Every structure is written in C-alpha cells, then in structure tokens.
Amino acid sequence: MDFVYVSGTDIKASRIALGTWAIGGWMWGGTEEQQAVNTIRTALDLGINLIDTAPVYGFGKSEELVGRALVESGNRDQVIIATKTGLEWDDQGRVVRNSSKQRILREIDDSLYRLHTDYIDIYQIHWPDPATPFEETAETMNDLYRKGKIKAIGVSNYNPQQMDGFKKYSELHVSQPPYNLFERKIEDDVLPYCIDNNITTLVYGSLCRGLLTGRMQKDTKFKGDDLRKIDPKFQQPRYNQYLKAVTRLDEYAQKNFGTRVIHLAIRWLLDRPGVNVALWGARRPDQLDPVSDILGWKLDESSMESVDAILKETVIDPVGPEFMAPPASSP
Hints:
- The protein is of the alpha/beta class.
- 36% of the residues lie in helices and 15% in strands.
- The protein has one domain: TIM Barrel (Alpha-Beta Barrel), CATH 3.20.20.
- The strands form 3 sheets. An 8-stranded parallel barrel has the order 3-4-5-8-9-10-11-12, surrounded by 5 helices. Strands 1-2 form a two-stranded antiparallel sheet. It has a two-stranded antiparallel ribbon with strand order 6-7.
- The model has no long low-confidence stretch (mean pLDDT 91).
C-alpha cells in the first residue's frame, strides 16, 4: 500500500481509503450489519488505514458500524477515522445543512460515542452552509483542533472561494471533493487551489456510484431508496453513453495493463496531479478484492491522453454529481 502524510500533521494515510456511505444503508437500499463490519475489517487487513464516514450515512448507522469494527479489531490507534459534521436531519429523514457552532459541538460528541473513541483524526464540514458565517464554523473547528478532540480539519464540497473564507479563521488540512473519470469539474478550480495551498485531498465517488466497476448492465435494477434511481447518469439516454464508455475503458485496461476498468479508474485517480487519497466505497468484503491490483503500476501521459479520447468519443452529454447536494436550509 502507498501512503501520504496529511499536510501539516503527522497523520500517515493510505492512498486508498474505505468510504462507508453505502455501509450505512441510507440511499443505498439498506445494509447488512455483520457484512458491513467484515468489510471494514477486510479493508484494514489489506493495508487500508483510513476509514471515511459521516453521521448522516444511515443517520448514525455507518459510524456505529465503524466503531464496532474497530472495537472488534482492537487497533484504534492504527486506524485513521475521517468523519464529518454540518448536516442535520428530521424524523422523516429530510437532510439540511447546518454548520453552526451548536450543531458541530453536538455532533462531535455523538460521533465520538458512536465511534467508541475519544478523538477524531480528520473532522470535515460536510457541505458549505450559507446560513452560517465561515467565522463561526471555522473557529469552532479550530477550537476542537486546539483541544485535541480532532487531529486535522477538513471541508467537503467546498469551492476555492469558500475554502478561502474558511482559512481566514482556521487551519485547513483536508479537502474532500467529488472526482472520478466521469466527474472532473474540480480539475478547473479545487485541485489547483489545493496544490497551491498545500491542502491534502481525499476524493470521493471514485467509482462513480458503481458505474466504473464494470458490473453495471443496461437492465440493472436499483431497489428501495437507492440514489441511483434519481442519478441522471443512470437515466437514458445518458446511461447508454456511460456504459459504452465503461466497455471501451475496460477493453483499454485489459489490452494495455492486463487489468480491468475498476483498476484503471482508481489508478487514474491516484496518478492525477493534486490527488492524495481516493475513497473506495464498498459494502461487502469481496468488493475490495481488486485493491491489490491497483498497486505497482502507473498511467503515463500517453495513457492519460488515450483515456481522455475514449471519454470524448463516448460520453457526448456528460453530467456532474450536483443532484446529490442537500438543501441549504430547512423549508
């Protein structure tokens, strides 16, 4: 496994991290708890030492399962926990942004309890909250950092202007934006900003909600509250374009590297300028089987150009991940 230090800290993180949104079950059609715990422990066995979660993933369920897995494994001090704050929900599961001091202080205690720990390695504001001044949010996070409750401060889904506003009042070590072969907007702004400001990136959506696993078919069905039922990438005619791209990328990976599209997608991320850590979402142990085949090879400039050409030829009507953004305030 390859590792990288989180800027401004002594945290040494694996460049592949486990993302646990799906493990929480919410917007992924439910969860199977023991299988989820086994997935976390399998990730640790593979050398992945960074586990990314959030209170809103299953409304506490994901954090509880991460905490349970770490208790069972008995190696909390060897694991980097990245979790988040700044979203709240009601009894009907309606989620809104709230990065107020009051909300953050309540959430961190709830997260510490669920995770069975007395500190969080990387604590991130989940979404920018226009109803709360950056000063209030940032100073609250900086206070938690000074007190040792958190070891690094991060933000997620922030643009450069928002990170600038945050940095006026606090340290900022980490940014977590969406990024994958199909969703590349951050190349224009967020990645250059993070490079220039020495901010470590943890990119999420690495496999584009399963599209880049190579397992999706034209007739694949999604159950329950699975967010892919409302994801525009999974709606026709776009869906066929993305499936065609996956087929072409898979053929390219097999021919040139002896791997498959899932390996190519993660390797591509790890070889992009400004990308430090890629989150790998999994909810079953077997979904982590390809991890070992990501290591030991790289994509050169010519390969990057070939990948770009495939995407340009196949995806003629691209769309980003904007549909996932929660409301900025309560209705």
